[in-house]
Write a structure and sequence with these properties.
Layout lengths: L1 H16 L3 E8 L4 E8 H4 L3 H16 L5 E4 L3
Parallel strand pairs: 2-3
Antiparallel strand pairs: 1-2
Helix pairs in contact: 1-3
Length: 75
């Protein structure tokens, strides 16, 4: 599943990088929670929760049915 998640993140990464941000995979839990770290401009953007839910989470859940949720974590 890790490779699928990384591939899906690569698909959304250009949209984040346009605005000076990016996303890094931190962990995938056994129950389908993908933990990511928002970096660059995304880390401090007030719209980051919208990006996380409407962009990153949606893209991953469409591509990978096993993904139940995407959470932003620190570090």
């Amino acid at each position: 599943m890790k490779e699928k998640v990384l591939t899906a993140l690569e698909a959304v990464r250009p949209f984040l990088q346009i605005d000076g941000g990016d996303v890094e995979l931190v962990n995938i839990t056994g129950d389908g929670i993908v933990e990511v770290k928002l970096v660059g401009a995304c880390a401090s953007c007030p719209m980051s929760i919208m990006t996380l839910r409407g962009g990153i989470e949606r893209a991953l859940m469409l591509e990978i049915p096993e993904v139940r949720r995407v959470e932003a974590v620190a570090g």
